[in-house]
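Write out the 3D structure for:
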Amino acid sequence: MKKSLMLYLFLLAILMNVFTYTFYSGQVKFEQERYDKTTKKLRDSISLVSEKLAEADYFSLEHNENAQNYFDNSASGGKVILYEKLIPVVTEKLLDLNANPKGNPYTGQDMIGGKKFIINKIKILNHRWIIADYSNGELWGEVLLKYFVDNDDNITFEVNQTWLYQK
């Protein structure tokens, strides 16, 4: 009786070990497959986001080599303007005009209801064009500007077209 009980316990222990091994082996395989699927999905998502970012930045001075080369006048004896330094200078100069009591003159809008229009966001498209978003707190619009950098590094702006959205 004691021998058969020991035999049953031994067989039960072996069966439990086999089932435990099978369960954990399957679980490891399942977790590895899930990890591989998730990793593939994340890589695909990162790739998609990278492609969309590259597409969105197509019109930007930072990624337009032809526009960057426009500021390299060293071949004709002129000076080189580094676009990396130009972008923040142009942005700051345009945003500094928001301090004007009548609003930023380059929004192309006069004050409405005593509220001045100021530029909120700027994107420098290339060596000549800027697109900007502006508002007065109630109304929003966009403006397409030309900008010029002369030989003395003076920056001037010119409103090309402006659009004020309806409420």
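The CA atoms of residues 38 and 44 lie 10 Å apart.
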